[in-house]
TrEMBL record:
Positions of the UniProt region annotated as Disordered: 221-244
Statement: the UniProt record of this protein carries the keyword Membrane: yes
Protein's UniProt name: Sulfite exporter TauE/SafE family protein
PANTHER family xref list: BLL1027 PROTEIN (PTHR31272:SF9), CYTOCHROME C-TYPE BIOGENESIS PROTEIN HI_1454-RELATED (PTHR31272)
Cited InterPro entries: Cytochrome_c-biogenesis_DsbD (IPR051790), Thioredoxin-like_fold (IPR012336), Thioredoxin-like_sf (IPR036249), Thioredoxin_domain (IPR013766), UreH-like_TM_dom (IPR039447)
Length: 442
């Protein structure tokens, strides 16, 4: 590796690592909140429960799902706490179903099956995020003053919960900080968008296609000039007015690039819809999938950086075959000129997205799974952040190359290997990001 390339890679790694470090430092160095978020839920019996309605009670929130095996194991513990005469007059227990795929009838059957005598309700839209529910079951204890005194996941000893409840009732606990996943959703969405655009599986396709788009403009302008002046004078005129012409066409190139970005989103959108739909059935496994995917991404990034083949390229070979077929068909259609420049860019964006999935499917899979358990609002904002990142990068790349043309295209082609290594560093950092997020929150 050349010294210049090594310096660029080192700077890239330092910048991205610093950004991640700042994120996690601000995220976990006292930036959390001990104050419980306000909520209001309707029980299966139709009763409205909120802080205001039972301000003299200590709340024990049990975030669960009817498909969660561990959640079922905790029901006898909750029953013993609910019937414990030493604390039951001062506490309110609410079992909260977070899975939107569960029907009211299904939750009622669950309540009857386990003889649950405390409150059962569906978690409101923002509660999963407000109380940082990343694993099931999650237990949260809230004091009469609205302060969170306990937050933990998994199987918890009955004595532990009883002691915390008693201390909370007596006002002996100052509170514990928890953080929401809103920052993670937006940050990971942007990082996923960047990794998807600079995918080493697809990025080498960008210069050649944009050269084709820009070349069509040059050809059209040259033909127009040839009608009025000689070829030599035409070249001089084109050279003299080149910057002004492209400057005037900047909005057009921004539009073309944005349409290409939308094409990329079509490929990812289909996968995102599928993952979101199946997310309800595999939601209980998500906490265990995330660190596995994070580890695989680190291995993938290292293999890409060192050019070591993992022999997992059958999918990419299939995608490349389809991409070549698309390119061949496009060449046949060029003579007929039935597809406009914008349509070409849109179709290219779809092909670009499919190609990038060969390397980035695990990243997008982890992102889609993570946000699938959030509220509808958070899911929408997450996908918007991802989409805007893709569209911005595609539009910016199109505009930049249209202004610089041949010189920049040549540099990008020559830097393909460097771009691949930078992308591999990004993938490694995404893997580290997932592992840190999982272990720090759990």
């Amino acid at each position: 590796m050349k010294k210049r390339d090594a310096i660029i890679l080192a700077v890239t790694f330092i910048i991205l690592s610093t950004l991640l470090g700042v994120y996690f430092f601000t995220r976990y160095s006292g930036s959390g909140s001990k104050k419980a978020a306000s909520f209001q839920v309707e029980t299966l019996e139709g009763e409205i429960i909120s802080f205001e309605s039972q301000s003299d009670k200590v709340f024990l929130l049990d975030f669960m799902s009817v498909t969660c095996t561990v959640c079922k194991e905790m029901n006898p513990v909750l029953n013993n706490l609910w019937t414990d005469s030493s604390i039951n007059e001062n506490i309110t227990i609410i079992t909260l179903e977070i899975d939107s795929f569960t029907t009211k009838e299904g939750l009622e059957n669950y309540k009857q099956e386990y003889n649950i005598s405390w409150y059962v309700a569906f978690a409101s839209e923002n509660m999963v995020d407000d109380y940082s529910v990343i694993s099931l079951p999650t237990f949260v204890i809230i004091s009469k003053e609205g302060i969170i005194t306990f937050h933990d996941t998994g199987v918890i000893a009955e004595d532990t919960l009883r002691d915390v409840l008693q201390q909370t009732i007596n006002g002996e606990l100052s509170g514990t900080e928890i953080t929401t996943r809103s920052e993670f959703t937006i940050g990971f969405a942007v990082l996923t968008g960047i990794a998807s655009f600079f995918s080493p599986c697809a990025f080498p396709l960008l210069p050649s296609y944009l050269a084709h788009i820009i070349g069509q403009d040059q050809k059209r302008k040259k033909e127009q000039n040839d009608q009025s002046i000689e070829e030599q004078d035409s070249n001089t005129l084109t050279s003299a007015t080149e910057k002004e012409e492209h400057k005037g066409n900047s909005p057009v190139y921004l539009l073309i690039g944005s349409v290409g970005g939308v094409g990329i989103l079509i490929s990812y959108g289909i996968l995102g819809v599928l993952i979101t739909l199946i997310g309800g059935s595999i939601k209980k496994y998500v906490p265990y999938l995330v660190p596995i995917i994070g580890g695989l991404l680190i291995v993938l990034g290292i293999s890409m950086f060192t050019n070591f083949s993992l022999q997992f390229n059958s999918i990419q070979q299939w995608i490349n075959k389809k991409q070549r077929k698309i390119n061949e068909n496009r060449e046949k259609r060029k003579k007929r000129e039935t597809i406009t420049k914008i349509n070409q860019t849109f179709l290219y964006g779809i092909g670009y997205g499919l190609a990038s999935l060969g390397c980035n499917a695990p990243i997008f899979f982890a992102f889609a799974l993570q946000i699938s358990s959030l509220s509808v609002t958070k899911i929408i904002f997450g996908y918007i952040a991802f989409s805007l990142t893709i569209i911005f990068l595609m539009a910016f790349a199109t505009l930049l190359i249209s202004l610089s043309r041949d010189a920049l295209l040549k540099k990008i082609r020559n830097a393909t290997e460097l771009i691949k290594k930078v992308a591999s560093v990004i993938i490694i950092l995404v893997g580290i990001y997932l592992l840190l997020e999982f272990f720090l929150l759990s």
